[in-house]
Structures are given as structure tokens and as C-alpha cells.
Predict the 3D structure of the following.
Amino acid sequence: MLPLSIVILTKNEAQNIARCLQPLIGLTDDILIVDNGSTDNTIEIAQSMQANILQTTWKGYSRTKNEGNAQAKYDWILSLDADEVIHEDLKNEIIQLFSTELKETESFAIQRKMMYCGQQLNYGAVANEFRLRIFNRKNGLWNEETVHENLFFKEKTQIKKLTGFVYHFSYNTTQEHVQRLEKYAQLFASKSTKKATFIKIFLSPIFGFLRNYFFKLGFLDGKLGFQFAKNELWYTFRKYQLLNLK
């Protein structure tokens, strides 16, 4: 077993959690589910797969993740989302990684490959998407961003990219995507104070769509590539619209 804690936030993730946990079995003796009031059988499924459970109240993504990290058994943390699944190559790479002593000032980014409405997206905004996911909690903490939180470090840290990846089973339908983006837009607007300019409201969404769909070749993902880029355009417009409606 590796000296690594795997921390996963959940709320009503019964449809995802078994798929997420299955490839993690045997990797560590500390898989920690940080649950925020699930009313389905998320906890029962996780417990049946030898995961530890921390039941807590929602404090925002960053603070809730930091709470989970603080309760973990080991200083080294692998942070996963419940809708993510590590590939076998990544699992083997992590095992190899911990075969030598790691420095606290090292951290590791993992590539995510998005599964969108049953199709893998290979281009556009999600192409070559890396997220910092393995770090030492003595040095790394999640910041206070309301949406799309990131890690910051107390000491200068060397970030290395792993070659393995996780599948991100993001949205089952395009409607689910829009609903999530509306939530993110509302969170963004609630925490921002400056009004958005004309450029931000109207030109930024267009530029974003052109970049994702054409320059980053999102059109090669077909109909769903277009839908994804269009929804992201709407999100950029919506968050600045809500900001100015405050």
C-alpha cells in the first residue's frame, strides 16, 4: 500500500462512485470520501468498497477539500472527483512514483480526458487539460476561489506532468452541462464585485468560442464538439450578465 491518501468529495454520487473507486482498490489503505449530505446510497456503496467516510457540511470547494485533506491519514494527497476514473497506466505510474522518496516541494499534474454525453472529446477547450492532483499537504492548500479552485504552495514547488490520465465522465446530457454552468455562473457573480465591460459581456464569449471551436480544432469532435463550445460561450456571457444584474 502506498503512503498516499485519496480524497474524493461527494454528494449524491451513487451513479459514479463505484466506477471511480474500483481501479483505486489496492493502491492505498486510505481512500477518504468527504460527503456533504448525500441522500442516495453514495455512502453505502463507498463503505462496501472499503472507503473511509467523513461526513461534513458544505463550505465551498476549496475549504471542504482542505478539511478532507486535514483528516486524511497521509501527507501525500491524490485529489479526485467522483466522476473521474484513473486509467491503469496512471495507476502503475503512481505506484512507480512512490517507489522512491518524494520531496514535499514536488507536485504532479494529471491529464483529464473528457467523456461528454458518451463521447470522448479530444479537441477544443478540453484538449491537453492537466490538473494538479498529487501534492503534499504540508506544502499545498486549495485556494479560496469559489469556482475552479486551484492549489497554492507555501514553498516554491516543482510541478511535473505524469503521462497517465484520468477519464472525466463530465455530463451525460447537454442539458446537464448547461445546468452546471448556470450554477458556476451564479457562484462567480455572487463573489465578484466589479461590473463587467462591454468587451467582457459580448466579445469575450465570441473570442472564446472561436478559440475553442476553430483554433483548438473543437470542430473535429463533431456535433458534440460544437455543442460543448456553444455551451461554454453561453457560460462566459451568462456569468458577466449576472454580475451586472446585481
Summary: The chain has a mean pLDDT of 95.
